[in-house]
Specification:
The protein is α/β, with parallel strands linked by helices. Helices cover 47% and strands 17% of the residues. It folds into two domains: 175 residues, NAD(P)-binding Rossmann-like Domain (Rossmann fold), CATH 3.40.50; 124 residues, N-(1-d-carboxylethyl)-l-norvaline Dehydrogenase, domain 2 (Orthogonal Bundle). The longest helix is centred in the middle third of the chain and has 22 residues. The protein binds nicotinamide-adenine-dinucleotide.
Length: 308
């Protein structure tokens, strides 16, 4: 396998983990970020990764967008969704004629944002179940088994995407090119709209939500609304699989605070627009009512206003 040139735009929890593991597997990785604390920590001490394979410190370059020069084979976007556009605009010079773009961000609308910067024939999206936490600047933790599914946005076969999937796979991030990746994206959106926004407004952990009968009932009802929209989009989402994943999280992710709750507690903006917001807009387009997702959308937006 030949080494790929891979730049990671947004080297927080997920970007650091993916970038670090790909660098460890021998690829030429550059991390790109704007957070001074993260940049200083990685430059000074390297990137500390702790996962099921153990703990190690890796040396790899981390640059601000304006410092970066390499036009990579793949630019993987791992900012939070509301920063995608700004980040890509500042990194536009890194998107060469051969550069391909991948988004594994949560939520809907990622493909459309990337398509403002490159032709659809060079853009891939996907869904990943990899968990990552940036526990301190320069220090990322992950654990457990995961699966990442990717697809070109135009649905075509693509040798470069197949090569990237192999690179991720051999770096310890199991990955497959999957024509149904969009189904997986929507199923995860159903999961995230339910758990993220409910935990955010109730200020409960996932386990705390699961401990209340009302919490469980609402989580499944919200997910059901999202799945109905996905079905109206013509996608063969699996309600059984999605509800089972939600039950598993409610039963086993006890102390986990979803990112939307973490963001509100830290007075940061959330990804509500690309989760509930995007679902509400898609539902409207199909003439479908999603009352619970709509109410949660309004409540999280109000919570965001309160922290200004
Ligand atoms: P994060 O906040 O830890 O990392 C985002 C990084 O982007 C930060 O380091 C930030 O400084 C950087 N950034 C912001 N603006 C930028 C800009 N203009 N240019 C360059 N970098 C910029 O977020 P995360 O948890 O890594 O999540 C990233 C995406 O992956 C989100 O869409 C999230 O929903 C998704 N996701 C996260 C997880 C997880 O477990 N953390 C799992 C699956 C998917």
């Amino acid at each position: 396998m030949s080494a790929l040139r891979i730049s990671i735009l947004g080297a927080g929890a997920m970007g650091s983990l993916f970038g670090g593991l790909l660098a460890e597997a021998g690829h030429a990785v550059e991390l790109i970020d704007v957070n001074p604390a993260q940049i200083a920590a990685v430059r000074e001490h390297g990137l500390l990764i702790r996962n099921d394979a153990g703990e190690r410190r890796l040396k790899l370059p981390i640059l601000r967008p304006e410092e970066a020069r390499t036009q990579p084979d793949w630019l993987i976007v791992f900012t939070k969704a509301m920063h995608t556009q700004g980040a890509l605009a500042a990194a536009r010079h890194l998107i060469g004629p051969q550069t391909r773009l991948l988004s594994l961000q949560n939520g809907l609308g990622n493909a459309e944002k990337l398509m403002a910067f490159a032709d659809a024939s060079r853009i891939a999206i996907g869904m990943t179940t990899v968990p990552a936490d940036l526990v301190a600047p320069g220090e990322v933790h992950s654990h457990g088994q995961s699966k990442t599914r990717v697809v070109m946005v135009n649905g075509g076969e693509n040798a470069a995407l197949a090569a990237l999937a192999v690179a991720l796979d051999t770096a310890g991030l199991p990955c497959a090119v999957d024509p149904d990746a969009v189904v997986a994206i929507w199923e995860k959106v159903a999961f995230n709209v339910a758990l993220n926004s409910l935990c955010a407004v109730t200020q409960r952990t996932v386990g705390g939500l699961g401990a209340a009968a009302e919490g469980r009932e609402l989580a499944h009802a919200v997910a059901g609304e999202v799945l109905a929209v996905a079905q109206a989009e013509g996608l063969a989402v699996s309600p059984e699989r999605t509800h089972a994943t939600i039950d598993h999280a409610l039963d086993h992710h006890g102390e986990h605070k979803p990112s939307m709750l973490q963001d509100l507690l830290a007075k940061r903006p959330t990804e509500i627009e690309t989760l509930n917001g995007a679902v509400v807009r898609a539902a409207e387009a199909h003439g479908i009512e999603v009352p619970r997702a709509t109410m949660l959308y309004a409540l999280v937006k109000m919570a965001e206003q309160d922290m200004r």
